Amino acid sequence: METPANPAPTSRPGVAAVVYNPIKVDLEELREVVTTQAGAAGWAETLWFATSPEDPGQEAARSAIDNGADLIITAGGDGTVRAVAEAVRGTGTRMALLPSGTGNLLARNLKLTLNDITHSVEVAFSGVDREIDLGVIDIERPDGTTSTHVFVVMAGMGLDAKMIENTDDDLKAKAGWIAYVKAIVLSLRDPNKLHVRLQLDGGTEKRATVHTLILGNCGSLPGNILLLPDAKVDDGLFDLMLMRPSGLMGWISVWFKVAWINRILRGSAADASIGKLSSDRSLRYETGTRLAAHLSRPEKIELDGDGFGEATAFNAWMEPGALTVRVPAH
Question: Does domain 135-321 have CATH number 1.20.120.450?
Answer without folding.
Answer: no
